[in-house]
Amino acid sequence: MIKKKINSLGGLVYSTNPDCKIEEESFDEQLTLEPAAQKLRINLDKKQRAGKMVTLVTGFTGLETDREALGKKLKSFCGTGGSVKDGEIIIQGDNRDKVLQWLLKNGYKLTKKMG
Q1: What are the residue ranges spanned by the domains of the chain?
Q2: What would the pLDDT profile of 83-111 be if each residue is shown by its tens digit?
């Protein structure tokens, strides 16, 4: 717990400067855009995955909870597993066509299927 506090201060442990003020960082998450305004990209990836293919959905702008909800809906529609990590929705297998079909049906107009 102490290490977490130190890291949140940017490594500052002690200062002799009487004018030193620690500024709190504010991490404001962006509000979730409407589906028609989202610019999503659908890619097929197999790097660093032991040769197994996954479908990546990137470009989602909004809250993490909304991203996770979208990932859950896509996994359910495709009938496969997956996860939401580092701002990407990961769907197991080559499901680019199914994901694109679901996104277009649900109002995500600016969606592109990449190579």
Answers
A1: 30-113
A2: 999 889 999 999 999 999 999 999 998 88
Please give the single-letter amino acid code of residue 23: E
CA distance 43 to 80: 16
For the entire predicted model, the pTM comes to 0.72
Average pLDDT over residues 44-60: 90
Answer whether residue 13 shows pLDDT above 80. Answer: no
Query: Is 3.50.30.10 the CATH number for 30-113?
Result: no
